[in-house]
Specification:
By secondary structure, this protein is an alpha+beta fold. 51% of the residues lie in helices and 14% in strands. It is built from ten helices and ten strands.
Length: 390
Amino acid sequence: MPDRAPQPVDRQLPTDEARDLISLVRDIAQREIAPRAAEEEDAGRFPRELFTLLSESGLLGLPYDSEYGGGEQPYEVYLQVLEELATSRLTVGLGVSVHTLASYALAAYGTKEQQAEHLPAMLGGGLLGAYCLSEPASGSDAASLRTRAVRDGDDWVITGTKAWITHGGVADFCTVMARTGEEGPRGITAFLVPGDAEGLSAALPEKKMGMKGSPTAQLHFDGVRVPDARRVGEEGQGFAIALAALDGGRLGIAACAIGLAQAALDEALGYAAERRQFGKPIADFQGLRFMIADMATQIEAGRALYLAAARLRDAGRPYAKQAAMAKLHCTDTAMRVTTDAVQILGGYGYTADFPAERYMREAKVLQIVEGTNQIQRMVIARHLAGPETR
């Protein structure tokens, strides 16, 4: 059989440091992540030790300031690291993206004192974060959240339930959006809550179609008391902080989606080169060759789209529209490409003996998390045509 080992993506990186970083990530992925992915996903095992290794390797704080233990890498580089991780195992790539999202509020809106106290452990001290915005009755309509924080002297007392929380039950800290004032977006404030806070508990993890190694759970806040020193930003600023975080988070999901699609394409190419029918490899049949060409083209287009948005962010320019476009296109691409990979593998693609079926199951959630793709279309349309008339 021909040797069809996946070829590394040829990346355009801005510095020698970035090239060395990608080499490090590929080495960790090949040695520590990929060999265990199928078995651990099937068992629903969360690889906490891998996140400890990534933290020790400086990979959990890449886009943040080196002053507090971050890697001070541009988003253009950080997102390509996410893509490499997600190609090896989506649970790991998406987990790093969520941790980065959870760290954003403090890194961007915290006081110098807060940052000095908490960021070193969050970015390079082995801690893992969760981002708590969604609730059982407020997903896409996040501004209607009901979790409430009430002032009590120098403390805040938080009561309510958060839903669909990645790393729920295993996170060391949670960035929590809670209502402190009026209804709507202006009454929401952000808090940094320790994962072991008294009164904070996690429900059993959700039983999901894919991403079984990544725990997703409700978090219950039963009178959780946090000092005002853990309030991030001003009172009432929480929703603006949440939306700013999600712009960057959507790019993280886009990069992870392209990583997953790349893994599916690599699997399809390897199988098509080895599988013979009618006396020749099925890769010689035009129908499959056209499928593979379309898969590769969609992946390249998605990669270019998320990188273009990242470069806008790195330049300090508005990028919310482009982030929504990247999230929309890249996750739809992941769904199409993984579905086509299953088709190319035929009956074998439908079995758990090959990873294609897992890739397809995992791709679906990327069209839902951090704003469904229907919400992305609304965001894009508002940028183009203005707000909807009332």
